[in-house]
Amino acid sequence: MTKKSRYLLLTLSFLVFSSLSTAQTDQLNHLIDKWHKAAADADAVTFFGLMSDDCIYIGTDASERWVKREFYQFAKPYFDKGEAWEFDPIERNMYFSENGKFAWFEELLDTWMGVCRGSGVLKKASEGWKICHYHLSITVPNEKIDEYLELIEVEKQERPK
Q1: For the domain 3-158, what is the CATH code?
Q2: Torsion angle in degrees (nearest 10) through CA of 109, 110, 113, 114
Q3: How many Cβ atoms are within 10 Å of 71's Cβ, its own excluded?
Q4: In order along the chain (161 residues), what is the average pLDDT of each group of 10 residues?
């Protein structure tokens, strides 16, 4: 194979891979946006349908670590009232495993709690991509960290021993 042929093959491979990667990123961004919209619309069928059966959801409180069925039980009353939660993505970064079977992301969200950070993992299943892990955290601006620490100290002191 000539140098020119190798260069052409390498360039073509890069373009094909980049195109596939962009298409997959777009597909998964759409899926995550759909998941957030389902929560905002109180559409439990879609929201929980986009999660794998073994999904873990970690909320903002230290006690909030749920497997899917536990999270469903917790969230069901909110969905039933038509008042779940609304998280609007501000930005998101997506990454893929080499074998293409897993993707992970981090995102900033505009929420009723202020700017939050979500991070998650998706896995490719026979029925398509599913969210298998999600972690939501509240962001604290650096200039507010002392105030935050004071609140945490008060909370610690008020806890029953």
Answers
A1: 3.10.450.50
A2: 110
A3: 21
A4: 62 46 92 98 98 98 96 96 94 95 98 97 96 98 94 86 75
